[in-house]
């Protein structure tokens, strides 16, 4: 039986992974920018400038696919998570603008734009993590139907679902992963050993924080996201998932320690893919845990099929274009020297 | 309660769109100017054209970044403010939105290469990169406007008891309003950017007479605006004919036509007097409205009062905005004709200070027409979010205190606007070649 719902959900997960690996690293650049020296800042700016806008479009694609293909999910998310999503947007607008302003404004103002760039770069991925964490928590209330005229208790609908330990730990986890990806990337681009060591040190710190927060989130999931917790520990694939993620994380440490920079970056990327894949599997078949499954919330095949076709055709243009962009700016993975 | 939720939500949407559209239009129009300048450099090897293309690219980089992030905000705000509308309409207008995603992707990728790849790829490849930016930018605008057109002329679906039973996403995309709206908006982008750039460089030329860069910039930008403005007036006429056929109430409000009338006059300016149900102080051209709308001097034009009160949009903002848009368009046509006349008489513009000053005065007109034109489209659709299908009041989120995000985004965009203007001013007048 033809089920475009699952293909589209898989494509959205893939797009989210790519967004995390590319735009996430760009966010990480902003996080690292908060406490960076002039030289470090210059490297971050050079690496980010040509590509961050293109990387950022993945988010637009994901949100469009969500409201086109799974409209009830978009509706519920937009209503219940109004506040965290608004904060994501404020972060995105602030960091994008401050970054381009910093590039084009005079020296004397760079400090101020850098601060805004960093704050926005922290706010956006953090609140994005909170948003995703809440979708997994099983705490999102079912909306009354019709909405018009129904009573909505403010805290119960708009605050309590996301103001919880578990979503906030996912927020921190997202933040550390962004900073880790960025450090792993920048240390390879560093023009001198001193800069390389600086970013290597940061990569270590964020790898440790990632590990600690991941365990913390798993612990908090017991009560904060019981469905996901159960699946991560007791499914047929749980053990393999744990081993793969753990190996990737250990490889990051080992490769960083022994100076295999490229290996460290690849292992970091695999770690992110494992975590996101595990998260998606753990909440399968739900997009919003307990209330919105992929099949039940999907739109009619009348739109899903043409969108799938458009995605196929579009990627024929998109993939080579992206490859050319990265190639032009030497963004392919550099070999170990 | 400072502001009702529905008013706050509508204000936030209007403010966000009104802000974003300036930058979106720059992303559509500026690549055309840059391509012409860079193309002339490749042809003539005159460095001034290259400097010009580079300077325009720097300004566009700032505008594009602000446009990209405010556009991201918009795609979320559709849901944050109007979740019921998006749940209903999302799949039906999914096609143009998905295609817009790809077009915008290509624009962002190739702009990255264009902005930062001057020394990394061959000059010809660089120019071609710009062409891709120009095409994908234009396409991305067209797709988004198709989605908006569907809100004015909802097509391609069948309803039973308020539930969509069947739909055809392609019919929804190419709805009856798509052609006139996308044509009008695409031309508007070139007109606005052409006149704005011509005026800004006219100011530059007045400040540093003899500057080759400003002279060449004016030539390119002015002609982009001057060639597109006559076509734009014609496309505006097509739009009005469309509105007359599909949204007669909107037309009546635009024109201040209160009562149904055969051989209705065209009203220029004037103030809609709601209590008295008439339009005061207007200059009336007899039978002209009937002719413009229906190509027949004696055609009957439906008046505002023939529609129930609860279906009417706010009348005066609509009428006034429409007047401002049309007059701005006519004023730009006048300036375009004057420039063409001076060129024909072989007058050098750089010595004609009064003409340069006129260009400076005309520089905001395109953007004024753009913003007021969107007020006509959007306010004129009220009280419906989807014409005769869903009311705006039914579409709003149950989230209370919407005045807070409205003020938050307004403050944010106000500050960004100030910084952008300051930075562009520095860019344009920084070094005068």
Features:
heterodimer, A: mainly alpha, 14 helices, 80% helix, 1% strand, B: 433 residues, mainly alpha, 10 strands, 7% strand
Describe the structure.
The complex is a heterodimer of chains A (337) and B (433). Chain A is an all-alpha fold. Chain A has 14 helices and two strands; from the N terminus they run ααααααααααααββαα. Chain A has one domain. Chain A has helices at residues 4-33, 38-48, 52-69, 71-80, 82-104, 110-137, 154-159, 165-189, 193-224, 226-234, 238-258, 261-283, 294-297, 301-328; strands spanning 286-288, 292-293. A two-stranded antiparallel sheet of chain A has the order 1-2. The termini of chain A are far apart. The model of chain A is unreliable at 331-337 (pLDDT under 50). In chain B, 54% of the residues are buried. Chain B is mostly helical. Chain B has 15 helices and ten strands. Chain B is globular, with a radius of gyration of 23 Å. In chain B, the strands form five sheets. Chain B has a two-stranded antiparallel ribbon. A two-stranded antiparallel sheet of chain B has the order 3-8. Chains A and B meet through α3, α4, α5, α7 and α14 of A and α2, α3, α4 and α15 of B.
